[in-house]
Amino acid sequence: MTQQPKDTGRPDSGKVALITGASRGIGYGIAEALVARGDRVCITGRGEDALKEAVERLGADRVIGFPGKAHDEAHQAAAVERTMEEFGRVDYLVNNAGTNPVFGPMAELDLGVARKVYETNVISALGFAQHTWRVWQKDHGGAIVNIASIAGVSASPFIGAYGMSKAAMVNLTLQLAHEFAPGVRVNAIAPAVIKTRFAQAIYEGREAEAAASYPLGRLGVPEDVGGAAAFLTSDQSDWITGQTLAVDGGIFLNAGVH
Fold first, then answer.
1. What's the CA dihedral at 231, 233, 237, 241 to 10 degrees?
2. Which of the residues 28, 92, 118, 162 is marked catalytic?
């Protein structure tokens, strides 16, 4: 049975979002942004304890957690069903869940690992989009935001499997935007290095050096992506679909500079 919203004095948009991989990092930053504007949110993640902590921080009056592995088809269907049970709708889907378990040249890449990366980063996003479409968005409209990466729109030495999967996410965005129009808008965000545990190995112990390469002088934080996701799921972006927004601190401005 759908629960009636509690009167907490906080903003209430009347909208509902499902955000995958959101117990911490970029996903959590997006959840914060959507909750702050009044959305109700279901967040998913692999760790039940981490999800519970995230729900408590975000506010259990507005947020529920649903644990599971993103690539598990049963989990995808159940997460969408649980969101519908709790909130009665799924206006927005944010596909953020991802993995990057390997570092090294493509010539030595274990193909089993490549399949795992693709399954988690791409196929799971398609699965969630399919379920959300069937259950709510096909008849009621909404928006989808896929979290890609600048690694998917440029060469990404030593994280090639990750970059390959994120390039597929950019193309998945185009395919879904075309097929789901006009009722559902589908866009992607391509972040550069964001200060999260996921990306910590890239900048740990050398943050100042890493930040110096960015024209805006700092690494990204989850709130940067949260703001972009809030925009792409708002009325202000009603005429935007099939686009990939780079949230990169200006790093692409360095292309071709020697």
1. 120
2. 162
Q: Is 162 a catalytic residue?
A: yes
State how far Cα 200 lies from the chain centre.
18
* Positive or negative: CA dihedral 82, 83, 85, 91: negative
Give the C-alpha separation, 170 to 189, whole Å: 9
E strand residue ranges, 29-159: 40-45, 63-67, 92-95, 142-147
Q: Tens digit of pLDDT for each residue in 147-180? A: 999 999 999 889 999 999 999 999 999 999 999 9
Comparing CA positions, the residue from 60, 170, 156, 166 lying closest to residue 121 is: 166
- DSSP H or E stretch at residue 191: strand 184-191
221-245 pLDDT, tens per residue? 999 999 999 999 999 999 999 999 9
Secondary structure (3-state) at 220: strand
- The size of the chain, in residues, is 258
What's the pTM? 0.93
